[in-house]
Structure formats: C-alpha cells, structure tokens
Amino acid sequence: MGPTRGVGHVMRSLALAEELVGRGAEVVFVCDSHTVPWANDQILARDIPVEPAVWTAGEHLELFARLGLDAVVFDSYDLDAEVFTAVRKSGIPTLAIVDGDLRGAEADLYVDQNLGSELDQPILPTGATRLAGLDYVLLRNEILALRPPEPPAPQQTGVPRVFAFFGGTDAFGAGPYVVAALAATGVPFEATVVAPGEDLAKAIAAVDLADGQHVEVIGPTSQLAKAVTASDLVLSASGTSTWELLCLGATAGLVCVVDNQVMGYERAVATGAAAGVGLLSDLKQDQTAAAAVLRPLLTDPQERTRIATAGWELVDGQGRARVVDEFFHLIS
C-alpha cells in the first residue's frame, strides 16, 4: 500500500478478513501498513497480526511456510508476477483481488469487484476461476451495519450537508480543488472535508467562500460510514470507496483523481448511481464545469434521492460472503 497507493487495497482486504474471521479462519496481514498509520490502526483494531512486507518470490515462500498458511489472498499492484506464479506452483490455494488487468498475476481464484467487470473476458491461467462485478464487492462490517434496509427517501433539508474525503491519504491533493468547485456554485452548504495532512488542511482553509457556505476541516477518521449516512451529498475519489457509498445509499459525487480510475469512473457515472464531478486534472485548471454538476446536487433533493436509490439498488452488501463461499470451496 503506502501513501501514494491510498488505502483502498487494505480496506477491501479488511472486509474479506472480517468475513473469514467470522467463519472461524485465522488471518494475518503481510504489508507495509505502518507507512499509513490510520490504515495500520484499522488492522490492529481488529486484532489481526501484521507481518512486514516481503517482495521476492523466495521471501514469500519462506514466510508462508513459516506461518503454515492454508491459503493466500493477494491484493497488490506492486508485486512481480513471478511471486504469484511461484506461490501458486507451490500448491497453496491463491486468491487475487484485481482491477481489470491481471498484470500477469497467476491465481486459482480472481475477484474483480468493479462495475462492469463481468463484461470483460481476460485470459485466465488453466484451472482458474474469476468472480466479477458488483455482486462480489467486499465491504467492511462498518458499512454493512449502516446500510439502510430500504431505499433512501427524499430529505427536505435546509442547507445541504456535504461530506468530502479522498481516500485515507488524499494522495493526489483533490480536497482543495473540490472545495473550490463547491464554493463556485454560489449555493449555501455545510461541508466537512477530510484532510490527511497539514498542507492540505491549509489549502482547503484558504479557499474563498460565499455567504452561507461553511467548511470544517478534519483529520482522518474511523467514523467515515457514519459521516456518510449523516450527509446529503458525499464527494469522493472514484476508487474502492465508491461501492461503499452506493451500498450506504449515499448521493455520491465522484472525482477521478488518477488514470487507473477512469474506466470505473465512467462506468459508475453511466449507471446514474453517481454524479461525475470530473477529472482532477481538469478541476485543477478550472472548477466551472464541476460547479455546474454540483449546483443541482446541492439544490434539488429529488435529484439526490434518485442518485442515492440507484446506488443502493446496485450494491447489496453480500459480495464478501459470496467470495468466501468460493474461496472455501477452493481450499477444500
């Protein structure tokens, strides 16, 4: 993971770990989570032991033998393909969480939880199985506990409440530009914005606001889901957190902060289950187009409800159970 990767990988791995532990399995994380203290705290809060990250195929085989593992889950963009190949050849059942491109990674079971991924047809290694689409989204207990039992109803609030966060690190500095776009709407709002660093917090605080617009800047929080459900509009990067927002029935406005999010961003917006605020590279040049998208989201409760309902219907929260069913079948 690390600050430049964000924490999406560890969040979905945590969701899978919670399901595994709930079914009696013992779990250990192998990662460099110490580089992102907030994410590290999330792992340790679940009493999951952490082993330092290793990188070579030999180091993985040695570590897995020492730990006596019955199966392995990989979720990494950074490991060489030879690691996956060596571990699979050793006979340990392997599951790889991927996003579109398999990156040469060999596994017995693949999970691609991205919208529309069921339409893709990557070439799989002999004997491998692939689970794809929103039916397999991996969501944490925190999200599942707060999922509304019914579709969202219109909320006739006064000043809309906005919550904005861009991953555990906001690695690409989206916060200040999104706040500038909100300010450019000229519409009153009450916003809470997560800024993981002091420089980001200062940049957000420096944005000129119009009358009736208020912004509170907070640090990383373990209460994201509660903040989402308490808000009228949620703005976030178009990453793994998108599926959390949809499951929670949030009115989601997405920002595409990096190139590898483009396909997921476009697919999510095309469903009508999220609003496309724009590409971060565009927002950094001019916030006018983003403000035009945000204005009706701030002023029209019916439009917010339409988007929220579409998202709630797309993600049912049972994905991790379906994945573990298949994983246990593989192991057995």
Please supply descriptive tags for the structure shown above.
single chain, about 325 residues, alpha/beta, Rossmann fold, 2 domains, six-stranded parallel beta sheet, 14 helices, about 40% helix
Description:
Helix 1 (8-22) packs across helix 14 (319-331), helix 3 packs across helix 4 (81-89) and helix 6 crosses helix 12. Strand 11 (252-256), helix 10 (262-271) and strand 12 (275-279) form a beta-alpha-beta unit. A six-stranded parallel beta sheet has the order 9-8-7-10-11-12, with helices on both faces. Strands 3-4-5-6 form a four-stranded parallel beta sheet, sandwiched between helices. It has helices at residues 8-22, 37-44, 57-67, 81-89, 141-146, 175-184, 198-205, 224-229, 241-247, 262-271, 280-283, 288-299, 301-314, 319-331; strands at residues 29-31, 50-52, 72-74, 94-97, 109-112, 129-132, 161-165, 189-194, 213-218, 233-237, 252-256, 275-279. It has 14 helices and twelve strands. The radius of gyration is 20 Å and the shape is globular.
